[in-house]
Amino acid sequence: MVTADAPSGSPEPPAARQHPPLHRPSGTTKVAVVGAGYIADFHLEILEATAGVELVAVCDVNQARAEAAARRFGAAHAVTDLSELAGLGVDVAHLAVPPDLHVPLTRALLESGVGVFAEKPIALGTDDARELAELAAAKGLALGVNHNNVFHPSFTRMVRRIESGEIGRVEHVQVTLSVPLRQLDAGDYSHWMFRAPRNIVFEQAVHPLSQLEHLLGPVKSATVDQLQTTELHPGQTFIKRWSASFNAERGTAELYMAFGEPFTRSTIQVLGSDGSLEADLFHDQLSGEQKTLWLDFWNSYLAGAKRAKQTRQDARQVLKNWSMFTLGLGARKDAFFVGMKESIQAFHRALRAGETLPNDAWAALRVTEWADALAGDTSAEPPPVPEFPEPGEARTDEVVVLGGTGFIGRRVVTRLLAKGEHVTCITRRFHSLPPEIVEPALDGRLRLVKASLGDEAGMARALQGARRCIHLATGNGDDWETVKKVMVDGSARVAEQCAEAGVERLVYVSSIAALYTGPDGAASSIADSWDTDAQLDKRPIYARGKAEAEKALKAVADRTGLKLVVTRPGVVLGEGTPMQHSGLGLWVRDNHCVGWGLGDNALPLVLADDVADALVAAALLESDAVDGQALNLCANPGISGHEAVIELQKATGRRIAFHPRGLLTSQLMEVGKWLVKRAGRRRAPFPSYRDLKSRALITPFQSDLAREELGWTPVEDREEFLDKAIRIYGRRPGASED
Question: What is the pTM of this model?
Answer without folding.
Answer: 0.85
